[in-house]
Each structure stands twice: as C-alpha cells, then as structure tokens.
Specification:
single chain, mainly beta, outer membrane lipoprotein receptor (LolB), chain A, 15-stranded mixed sheet, two-stranded antiparallel ribbon, 3 helices, 17 strands, 11% helix, 49% strand
Length: 235
C-alpha cells in the first residue's frame, strides 16, 4: 500500500528568467482538505497548500497527510513538497521532496537543472530528463493548468507529461472527458473529467472544478488489481 501517492531550496535564477517569471499569471493560494480512502478503508485526510515561494512566478506546493491512528502506526505519515516556477505557462520543478519517516525507499529528494535538462537525487545520481518532465506531485498542477487552457476547445488534444520519481520516467497521457458533475462533502460541483489512458493496468480519473480554480474535487486511482485510492474534497 503506497500511501505516498495519496498523501507532494529554490535555486537561484538568472536575471532574464526572473523577468520572464514576473510576466506569468499568478496562481491563487490554496489550502484544501481531502478525505482519503483505500478501497473501503478510511485512511485519514490530506491537506494540500499552494503558496508563493521567493521569486515572482515561483511556488511551494505541499501535501501533508493526517492519517488515522491505525494507518499512522502501520504505514507512517508521508508528506511531499514540490517547489516549482512557471515559465511560458509550463511548470518547471526546481526541487521535490518525499518524506516517509522510517522508509528510505520512499524518502528522497530530486533537484532539477533545466539548463542541463537533468535531475539529481539525494544519492547524487543524475539522469537526463525531457522538456515535459515534472515531479509526481506537481503533475497535479500541470493537469490543472492544461484543463484551464483547453476546456473550451471543440476538440481538446491529449494532455501528455513525463513524471519523474526516484527511479523512473513515466509517460502519462490524459484524455479530456468533458462535463462530469460530482457530489462531495464540500458540496456539489460542475466538474470537468480528466482520464489517464496510457496504461490499461493503471486507472486515473480526476474531477476538476472551475469553481475551485480547476483544482480536483475528487480523484480515483488504481494500480492493477489493488484497491482503489479515492480522495474527495471535504472543505
């Protein structure tokens, strides 16, 4: 059971890039709570925040878990932080940190160097990355920005991203599913559905609500025959 998927130092920028970032539209600050479940089991809450971070156009995106007592005892309390900047409407991760106390496999950092197009982990190992690379947590923001840009298209293209973790580069494809109203503990939303379609063994559905700045108000993910992981906006 990988709860890190349930529960995501800004580098100095050249002056020219600082000017470009200042021209990017500002993202709204966020402080959202989600009820999380694994199959039929309640696993607690997830708090997601987004705040400006240093230079104009740069942000700190955090995923803080508040697991139930049993889940905390058995699996710990994983957290994630993504520090990223916007450039040309695209998210550029600067640093990603995954923390799961007591689990070295799920605790790691990634530092992104966009001049060299490389990512370096906490062991000092560097890998080449493509231009659409993004960390696993900030991927949520990339999908959000994509929906904002394409929701009114008559025939939206596929959304494609390359997710970077401590081991792999995974190519993601999402299909825009159109209007999909959904009820949550935080209320009813006229949401827009995005569905992952690159791997038949990995399900991913995301309901994004324009009324909540296109943030997801419900998500469903599943890996193979494992139980469904569900997150629903609670407040």
């Amino acid at each position: 059971m990988k709860l890190t998927r349930v529960f995501a130092a800004l580098l100095l920028l050249p002056a020219a890039l600082q000017t470009a970032l200042a021209d990017e539209p500002a993202l709204p600050s966020l402080d959202l709570y989600y009820d999380a479940s694994w199959g039929s089991m309640d696993v607690g809450q997830v708090q997601i925040t987004l705040r400006p971070d240093g230079a104009a156009g740069c942000y700190r995106y955090t995923n803080t878990s508040h697991p139930t007592a049993l889940v905390r005892l058995l699996y710990g309390s994983p957290d994630q932080v993504s520090q990223f900047c916007l450039s040309g409407g695209r998210i550029r991760t600067r640093r990603f940190e995954s923390v799961l106390p007591g689990d070295d496999r799920q605790s790691y950092t990634l530092d992104f160097d966009w001049d060299k197009h490389t990512v370096t982990d906490n062991r000092g190992q560097a890998r080449a990355i493509p231009d659409d690379a993004i960390d696993s947590f900030a991927l949520q923001q990339a999908v959000r920005l994509w929906v904002q840009a394409h929701a009114s298209d008559k025939a939206p293209p596929l959304a494609e991203f390359t997710m970077v973790d401590n081991k792999n580069l995974t190519h993601y494809k999402f299909r825009f599913g159109g209007a999909a109203p959904v009820d949550t503990p935080a209320g009813h939303f006229d949401a827009l559905l995005m569905e992952r379609i690159d791997n038949p063994d990995k399900l991913g559905r995301f309901w994004l609500a324009p009324a909540r700045d296109y943030m997801p108000v419900r998500t469903e993910t599943r890996n193979g025959n494992k139980p469904m992981v569900t997150m629903v906006l609670s407040r």
